[in-house]
């Protein structure tokens, strides 16, 4: 559940839409066509709900509120305002979009559980409001509201083939819009938000805004579905838009498979075939069977129908690979192999420490490679200055008056025992953690500025757990980090105007540049991030942070949990970053690694700076050795 | 220090079935081999250290013993009997585990925290309450306080108290020195070593602080590349951290 | 004024029922990690069982007794068959409870006939007494008493029993609790057993007031969510305070403004609380690690 957010569903979607378009040729019965019409109407809303749930990680158990708004607004402006039908539908969709955006911005602050409860609640409140007397002038209260028939020439859109294809067009439209959304910057940013909000924010993504956008899109599509529902039923009553329907819609998405766009359509067809196929026995026993199926699917087949079909097709065609995670081991082996045979020029740089590590005993390698010969010309004022940084965690002093200066173009390492406050210090610099004291970058006081502004001024960072989007390729993941800003209109992006295309191109160029600079093997660029080894993921995380062309790059334990070869690759990557003129502040535990890459080094212990200096000096300091390997009783 | 030396010279061979025995342990996380053929033993009354760099897999080793991490291969035995795979069953078999970050229940009182150490029913006369109260007098004084209010050092005492009160056969301690001042650490480790020896409890201490381990443990293992080797030269810091 | 006071009193009684359902939600949330959307319908289904027994000639009290035993079994079955197998992540489990919500409503419709709603006989005496011109209904007073007894029972369990201490431990640090030998799954089973019984109690107290039908629990479930959020989703005691606030306010809104805004007022209180105190009145902040 919620784990996947697939990218390549265009062909399956097109196939399914074509099948549905051709279905009336085979399915001749009026009632059978009626079932498909209902299924497609729900599918319109379900696709939007999938965007919300599968692609942006939010829940909604109240999507029928927007169905209702679309339907009622459309019907009411036609009855009361005598609007023609097309503007009425547009008004309905616009109203549901607007309300979804407003309500969405109220709920996005809640965690997924809170938004589930909130939307569930809203669904119930909406029914009360529709059936109550307060809005009865518009809604007809509990008496309901007749929908004026819609005709083109002599053909009524409310019956037969005309209804079928009107609804089909609505479905095709919503699939197209939702698919497009998942491909543009906004959709990809939303997927990072789903993965990890803090990481997204540090990449410059406007978390709040992207979540509301997904809400608005889901609301718009649901409003369209509501209009279709109005056409089909011809008469609106509050019972049509209850919380049961909202929950059923969610169940449809879950059964069909979240994060696939196509799955929810399958789910809707499945639901209505089942409910109506059994309607001859009893309406409620078909409901019972459906809820039983939902439960079985959710308990046993987490990925839903789409996942089952995908696996089935793959087995049939004998395809292997390309499923994220399933073949991780192979990918890992392949990744190692490829890391070793890179282009000849780069190979020397990569292979040298590796072969060194293999040939000689571990103890001598890094001692034999001191950084003394490194040109350490530091001209001009320092890039980063921290003064008196302090953080309290409920009475525990995590950081205590930390002063730190990082010179322009240097690689500065922070070392110290667990719990010394190293990650907290990076959080203070990138603005995630409020703190006392001053943060100055390039003579620019950032102390009171939020995360997004600090990124715009040139601070970028990686995390201990990279939080890449598993269903996006390496290049796509890096692109998300490469946008100068994440501002701008999602509608324009989806329209693909020259301005936004240019912007996408710039981001792509920057991403390519970052990957090239870090010498990440080109044949791995189109691999899904879910198939990468931990070492590669850390590598991509650095590329993603570097792609924003920062002045200062903060790296949080890029070597933790990696093997010796992978550590070598990360060290190479950092040297690439330094060559590009970017200043690096890196937390590390592996002293050999620090010795190899760092110009300067600061030791933190108990939230204080113990000592600071060149890497050679600091690592030779007895006191530091004490802190690092133990300040027990002197023997 | 002289007592330490005495115990060190005792032969550990010949008691292969008693105590904790890990043989060829393997642990994988999504394909990656985090622990790859690790073997070590902790005899009753022995205090053993496990050192290694951050991310080397020290915590994972302890979690694999107590069942919090799935073991993908190898055997873990206590007194010659295979340990079960579920944490609660491992605990009831006599393995106490002070987890990373100490696992103190902040909203409960110190006394309630300690009582949770007796979830595994132990006859009253077998509990170590008396001995522990002597070793950690501060804990007795703090009995009624909310554990969340305590300092890091006090919480560590409570965690050790809770781990030992049920007289386990083996005690696993993760990141013993985390957040402790050198002085508090010294008090804690000395008390731990003494209690373990007095009551025949095998103790396995995981820490980055290799000097502390070398000074207080009967043996120290160094973890690297997913396996361990005996690390007998305390001065040989380079091979552990500076490779 | 007399009307207002008696509205407030019945609001408190109803609020305590809300609080009790909210208590179950939070109790399950703390012990099993997921708030169960289906708790209301669990109570509904169990009340139907009692109703069927009574309709087939059993006395009301014996039927309630048998129903209580069934509820305990029912709770255990739900945990063992629906929630435990292939233990999913939080989102998956949440969806499982939603599916269970649908399933129980459908089961009630299929098994207990299409003539719903039914009148359900009251276990409590009807009528009331006037105190200073204010009508106090016996059923309300007894409801208050029952809830107080249950709360006292739970407080005593948490404070003085081994079982209660283990519940608190699992709620705070499930992993550490297991390291100490706490059998977490057994506790979850017991928690569902208790939840099943409490849910029946709510159903039995509610059904005489508002008829018995498959959707009867939906409003109170929503109120309970609101109460839990107002009380702070991590606070067991806070749920009752939240319940009383929601109960009284919604009762006043229903009487003086109109029933179509009852739910809306509860939603408004919930959102207002979240805006002012994101962790509710008594909740504690959850620390998130990167």
UniProtKB/TrEMBL annotation, chain A:
Its main location: membrane. PANTHER family: CONSERVED COMPONENT OF ABC TRANSPORTER FOR NATURAL AMINO ACIDS-RELATED. This is Branched-chain amino acid ABC transporter ATP-binding protein/permease. Residues 384-631 form the ABC transporter domain. SMART domains: AAA (SM00382). Keywords: ATP-binding, Cell membrane, Membrane, Nucleotide-binding, Transmembrane, Transmembrane helix, Transport. Pfam families: ABC_tran, BPD_transp_2. InterPro entries: AAA+_ATPase (IPR003593), ABC_AA/LPS_Transport (IPR051120), ABC_transp_permease (IPR001851), ABC_transporter-like_ATP-bd (IPR003439), EmrE-like (IPR037185), LivM-like (IPR043428), P-loop_NTPase (IPR027417). It comes from the Bacteria. The chain crosses the membrane at residues 39-57, 64-79, 85-103, 110-130, 162-181, 216-237, 249-275, 287-306.
From TrEMBL, chain B:
Residues 20-243 form the ABC transporter domain. The keyword Transport applies. One of its GO terms (molecular function) is ATP binding. InterPro entries: AAA+_ATPase, ABC_transporter-like_ATP-bd, BCAA_Transport_ATP-bd_LivF, P-loop_NTPase. Keywords: Amino-acid transport, ATP-binding, Nucleotide-binding, Transport. It holds the Pfam family ABC_tran. Belongs to the ABC transporter superfamily. PANTHER family: HIGH-AFFINITY BRANCHED-CHAIN AMINO ACID TRANSPORT ATP-BINDING PROTEIN LIVF. This is ATP-binding cassette domain-containing protein. It comes from Actinacidiphila acididurans.
From TrEMBL, chain C:
Signal peptide: none annotated. It is a multi-pass membrane protein. Keywords: Amino-acid transport, Cell membrane, Membrane, Transmembrane, Transmembrane helix, Transport. It is found in: Cell membrane. InterPro entries: ABC_transp_permease (IPR001851), BCAA_transport_permease (IPR052157). The keyword Transmembrane applies. It comes from the Bacteria. The keyword Transmembrane helix applies. The chain crosses the membrane at residues 7-29, 61-82, 94-113, 134-158, 189-208, 220-249, 261-282. Belongs to the binding-protein-dependent transport system permease family. LivHM subfamily. This is Branched-chain amino acid ABC transporter permease. It comes from Actinacidiphila acididurans.
């Amino acid at each position: 559940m919620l784990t996947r957010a697939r990218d390549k569903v265009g062909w399956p979607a097109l196939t399914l839409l074509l099948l549905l378009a051709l279905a009336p040729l085979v399915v001749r019965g009026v009632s059978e066509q009626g079932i498909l019409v209902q299924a497609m109407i729900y599918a319109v809303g379900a696709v939007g709900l999938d965007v919300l749930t599968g692609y942006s990680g939010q829940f909604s158990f109240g999507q029928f509120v927007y169905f209702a708004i679309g339907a009622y607004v459309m019907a009411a402006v036609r009855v009361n305002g005598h609007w023609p039908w097309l503007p009425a539908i547009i008004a309905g969709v616009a109203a549901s979009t607007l309300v979804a955006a407003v309500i969405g911005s109220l709920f996005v602050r809640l965690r997924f559980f809170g938004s589930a409860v909130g939307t569930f609640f809203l669904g119930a409140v909406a029914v009360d409001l529709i059936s109550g007397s307060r809005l009865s002038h518009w809604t007809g209260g509990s008496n309901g509201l007749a929908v004026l028939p819609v005709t083109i020439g002599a053909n009524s859109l409310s019956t037969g083939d005309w209804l079928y294809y009107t609804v089909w067009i609505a479905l095709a439209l919503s699939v197209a819009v939702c698919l497009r959304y998942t491909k543009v910057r906004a959709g990809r940013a939303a997927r990072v938000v789903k993965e990890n909000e803090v990481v997204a924010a540090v990449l410059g993504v406007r978390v709040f805004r992207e979540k509301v956008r997904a809400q608005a899109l889901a609301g718009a599509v649901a409003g369209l579905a509501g209009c279709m529902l109005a056409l089909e039923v011809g008469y609106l009553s509050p019972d049509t838009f209850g919380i049961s329907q909202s929950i059923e819609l969610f169940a449809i998405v879950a059964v069909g498979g979240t994060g696939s766009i196509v799955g929810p359509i399958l789910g809707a067809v499945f639901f209505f075939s089942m409910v109506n196929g059994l309607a001859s026995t009893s309406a409620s026993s078909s409901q019972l069977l459906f809820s039983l199926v939902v439960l079985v699917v959710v308990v046993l087949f987490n990925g839903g129908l789409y996942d089952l079909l995908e696996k089935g097709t793959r087995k049939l065609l004998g395809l292997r690979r390309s499923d994220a995670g399933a073949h991780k081991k192979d990918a890992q082996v392949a990744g190692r192999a490829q890391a070793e045979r890179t282009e000849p020029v780069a190979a020397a740089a990569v292979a040298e420490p590796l072969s060194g590590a293999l040939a000689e005993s571990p103890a001598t390698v890094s001692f034999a490679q001191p950084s003394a010969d490194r040109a350490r010309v530091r001209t001009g004022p320092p890039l980063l200055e921290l003064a008196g940084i302090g953080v309290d965690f409920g009475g525990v002093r995590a950081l205590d008056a930390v002063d730190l200066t990082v010179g322009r173009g240097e690689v500065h390492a922070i070392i110290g025992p667990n719990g010394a406050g190293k990650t907290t210090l990076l959080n203070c610099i990138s603005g995630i953690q409020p703190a006392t004291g001053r943060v100055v970058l390039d003579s620019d006081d950032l102390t009171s500025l939020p995360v997004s502004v600090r990124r715009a001024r040139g601070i970028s960072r990686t995390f201990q757990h990279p939080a890449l989007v598993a269903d996006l390729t390496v290049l796509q993941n890096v692109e998300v980090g490469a946008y100068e800003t994440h501002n701008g209109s999602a509608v324009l992006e989806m329209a693909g105007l020259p301005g936004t295309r240019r912007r996408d191109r710039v981001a792509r160029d920057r991403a390519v540049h970052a990957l090239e600079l870090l010498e990440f093997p080109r044949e791995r660029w189109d691999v899904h991030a879910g198939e990468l080894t931990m070492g590669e993921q850390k590598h991509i995380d650095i590329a993603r942070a570097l792609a924003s062309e920062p002045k200062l790059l903060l790296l949080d334990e890029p070597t933790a949990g990696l093997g010796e070869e992978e550590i070598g690759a990360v060290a190479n990557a950092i040297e690439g970053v330094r060559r590009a003129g970017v200043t690096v502040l890196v937390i590390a535990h592996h002293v050999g690694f620090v010795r190899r890459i760092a110009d300067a080094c600061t030791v933190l212990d108990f939230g204080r700076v113990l000592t600071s200096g060149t890497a050679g000096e600091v690592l030779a300091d007895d006191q530091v050795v004490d802190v690092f390997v133990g300040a027990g009783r002197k023997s | 220090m002289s007592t330490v030396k005495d115990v060190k010279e005792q032969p550990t061979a010949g008691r292969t079935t008693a105590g904790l025995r890990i043989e060829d342990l393997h642990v994988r996380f999504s394909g990656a081999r985090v622990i790859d053929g690790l073997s070590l033993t902790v005899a009753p009354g022995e205090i053993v250290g496990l050192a290694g760099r951050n991310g080397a897999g020290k915590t994972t080793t302890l979690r694999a013993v107590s069942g919090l991490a799935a073991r993908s291969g190898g055997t873990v035995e206590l007194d010659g009997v295979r340990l079960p795979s579920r944490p609660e069953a491992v605990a009831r078999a006599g393995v106490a585990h002070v987890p990373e970050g100490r696992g103190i229940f902040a909203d409960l009182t110190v006394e309630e925290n300690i009582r949770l150490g007796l979830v595994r029913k132990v006859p009253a006369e077998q509990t170590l309450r008396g001995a522990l109260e002597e070793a950690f007098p501060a804990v007795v004084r703090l009995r009624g306080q909310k554990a969340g209010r305590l300092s890091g050092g006090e919480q560590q005492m409570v965690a050790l108290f809770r781990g030992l009160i049920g007289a386990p056969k083996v005690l696993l301690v993760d990141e013993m020195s985390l957040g402790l001042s050198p002085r508090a650490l010294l008090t804690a480790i000395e008390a731990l070593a003494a209690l373990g020896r007095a009551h025949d409890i095998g103790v396995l201490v995981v820490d980055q602080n290799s000097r502390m381990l070398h000074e207080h443990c009967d043996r120290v293992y160094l973890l690297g590349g997913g396996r361990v080797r005996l690390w007998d030269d305390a001065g040989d810091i380079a091979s552990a951290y500076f490779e | 004024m007399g009307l207002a006071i008696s509205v407030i009193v019945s609001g408190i009684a109803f609020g305590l029922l809300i609080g009790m359902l909210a208590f179950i939600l939070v109790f399950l949330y703390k012990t099993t990690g997921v708030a169960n959307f289906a708790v209301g319908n669990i109570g509904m289904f169990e009340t139907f069982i009692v109703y069927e027994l009574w309709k087939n000639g059993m006395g009301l009290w014996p039927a309630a007794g048998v129903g209580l035993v069934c509820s305990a079994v029912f709770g255990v079955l739900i945990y063992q068959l629906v929630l435990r197998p292939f233990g999913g992540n939080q989102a998956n489990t949440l969806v499982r409870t939603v599916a269970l919500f649908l399933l129980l409503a459908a089961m009630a419709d299929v098994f207990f006939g299409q003539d719903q709603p039914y009148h359900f006989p009251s276990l409590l005496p009807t009528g009331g007494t006037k105190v200073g011109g204010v009508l106090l209904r016996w059923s309300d007073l007894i409801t208050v008493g029952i809830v107080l007894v249950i709360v006292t029972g739970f407080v005593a369990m948490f404070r003085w029993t081994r079982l209660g201490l283990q519940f608190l431990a699992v709620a705070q640090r499930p992993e550490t609790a297991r390291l100490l030998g706490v059998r977490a799954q057994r506790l979850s089973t017991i928690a569902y057993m208790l939840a099943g019984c409490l849910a029946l109690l709510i159903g039995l107290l509610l059904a005489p007031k508002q008829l018995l039908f498959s959707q009867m629990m939906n409003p109170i479930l929503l109120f309970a969510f609101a109460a839990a959020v107002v009380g702070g989703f991590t606070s067991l005691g806070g749920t009752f305070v939240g319940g009383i606030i929601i109960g009284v306010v919604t009762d006043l809104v229903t009487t003086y403004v109109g029933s179509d805004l009852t739910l809306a007022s509860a939603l408004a209180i919930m959102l207002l609380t979240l805006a002012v105190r994101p962790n509710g009145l008594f909740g504690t902040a959850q620390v998130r690690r990167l």
